[in-house]
């Protein structure tokens, strides 16, 4: 592992941070920030490192993420605002905390992403589910032990590199989706609402205990809360208000006194007023299934919008489709600031890097302020007039 000083990137990082901060104030910088959600598994596939090695070896995990940061800064050239790595266990926290079986990548399937094998299969399993004390939990303690080892490795080999990590489950609805499986989750909310609330209360208790333990073990300052709640977006508004709203509201009120973030790689366009006026979220990460016109209209000037570009067009290799997707997001969401261009959800490993680079370059090109239709290749005034009342146009 070679020594590297990331402080040499400080000038470009500072420029990117300044652009993002202007946009987050609902003002217009020189162009829209383009900040792509790229994580360790994408880097691993990009560099040919099996996930079976990435998830099991701290040194490899660190090297892959560092190489990925340098790839972004020197080749992809999106608007990265800081250089940092994370202890990455994959989306398995619920399974670890509640002692589920975990399917990990191995020699037989080295590229398999970690996933939880659902363990709650009967109503009796809900009654028998106990919320552990994080201070006594082997898996939680192992996570923070590995986090400290990763920090030591980073200090020895890199300067100007931050290291983060947090053991935390999803909020109750999505956490339940991991423990039950999606089909059982949605069916049981209709059939057994009282029992599901019993489960959600236990998951809320677990979330609170893990959050407080995170502050205790890391010394991090409270006040910032980011919820990742994909499963809840598939509920109707009525069911969302019944099963997700009470629990998420209490978590935001308890832990999000300074700043609130919400990621939903599912629908949020039917609950925008709840997100804006009840949760009072400041920043939303928007999945591809949302209508960007609704999102932009409802959040304009009050909630920073990140994402929504459909990553599936990158798989097509069709530059015209990529351009159209970029133009759609920029036209509706960028005017007035408050928009950060990104794909909806995470950048998946199968996305060709050349297509990702083209998307970044095109977004920078047409996303210059003031937004000008003359710089667009596909969106024209006569087409926009037709678009106003046609939900299927895009």
Keywords:
single chain; 394 residues; alpha/beta; TIM Barrel; five-stranded parallel sheet; two-stranded parallel ribbon; 18 helices; 11 strands; 49% helix
Task: Give a description of the structure.
The protein is of the alpha/beta class and 394 residues long. The protein has a domain at 82-218: TIM Barrel, CATH 3.20.20. Helices cover 49% and strands 9% of the residues. The chain has helices spanning 10-24, 40-46, 51-54, 58-76, 93-97, 123-128, 138-157, 172-180, 182-191, 193-218, 237-243, 245-255, 272-278, 292-299, 312-316, 319-333, 353-366, 381-387; strands at residues 4-5, 84-86, 101-103, 115-117, 158-159, 162-164, 224-228, 259-264, 283-286, 304-307, 339-340. Strands 7-8-9-10-11 form a five-stranded parallel beta sheet, with helices on both faces. Helix 14 (292-299) links the parallel strand 9 (283-286) and strand 10 (304-307). The termini are far apart. The relative contact order is 0.12.
Q: Separation of termini?
A: 47 Å
Unreliable sequence segments: none
CATH topology of one domain: TIM Barrel
At CATH level 2, the architecture of one domain is Alpha-Beta Barrel
CATH class of one domain: Alpha Beta
Number of strands: 11
Note the total helix count. 18
How many whole angstroms does the radius of gyration measure? Answer: 21 Å
Helix-strand pattern, N to C?
A: EHHHHEHEEHHEEHHHEHHEHEHEHHEHH
Shape: globular
Class computed from helices, strands and strand pairing:
alpha/beta
Could you estimate the helical fraction of the residues in percent?
A: 40-55%
Question: Oligomeric form of this entry?
Answer: single chain
Strand content: 5-15%
For the largest sheet, list the strands in their spatial order: 7-8-9-10-11
């Amino acid at each position: 592992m070679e020594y590297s000083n990331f402080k040499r990137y400080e000038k470009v990082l500072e420029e990117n941070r300044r652009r993002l901060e202007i946009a987050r104030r609902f003002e217009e910088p020189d162009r829209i920030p383009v900040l792509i959600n790229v994580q360790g598994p994408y880097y691993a596939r990009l560099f040919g490192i099996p996930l079976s090695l990435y998830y099991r070896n701290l040194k490899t995990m660190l090297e892959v993420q560092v190489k990925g940061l340098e790839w972004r800064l020197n080749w992809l050239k999106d608007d990265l605002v800081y250089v940092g790595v994370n202890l990455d266990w994959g989306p398995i926290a619920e399974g670890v905390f509640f002692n589920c079986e975990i399917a990990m990548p191995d020699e037989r399937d080295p590229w398999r992403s970690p996933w939880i094998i659902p363990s709650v299969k009967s109503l009796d399993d809900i009654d028998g589910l106990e919320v552990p004390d994080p201070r006594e939990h082997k898996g939680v303690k192992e996570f923070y032990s590995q986090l400290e080892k990763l920090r030591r490795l980073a200090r020895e080999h890199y300067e100007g590199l931050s290291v983060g990590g947090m053991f935390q489950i999803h909020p109750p609805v999505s956490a339940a989706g991991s423990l039950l499986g999606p089909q059982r989750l949605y069916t049981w909310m209709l059939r057994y609402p009282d029992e599901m609330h019993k489960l959600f209360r236990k998951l809320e208790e677990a979330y609170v205990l893990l959050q407080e333990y995170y502050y205790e073990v890391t010394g991090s300052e409270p006040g910032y809360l980011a919820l990742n709640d994909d499963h809840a977006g598939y509920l109707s508004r009525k069911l969302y208000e019944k099963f997700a709203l009470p629990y998420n509201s209490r978590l935001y009120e308890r832990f999000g006194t300074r700043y609130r973030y919400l990621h939903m790689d599912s629908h949020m366009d039917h609950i925008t007023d709840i997100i804006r006026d009840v949760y009072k979220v400041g920043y939303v990460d928007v999945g591809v299934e949302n209508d960007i016109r609704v999102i932009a209209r409802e959040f304009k000037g009050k909630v920073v919008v990140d994402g929504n570009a459909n990553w599936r067009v990158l798989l097509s290799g069709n530059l015209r489709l990529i351009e159209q997707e970029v133009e759609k997001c920029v036209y509706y969401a960028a005017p007035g600031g408050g928009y950060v261009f990104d794909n909806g959800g995470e950048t998946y490993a199968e996305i060709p890097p050349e297509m990702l680079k083209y998307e970044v370059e095109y977004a920078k090109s047409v996303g210059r302020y003031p937004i000008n239709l003359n710089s667009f290749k596909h969106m024209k005034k006569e087409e926009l007039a037709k678009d106003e009342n046609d939900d299927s146009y895009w």
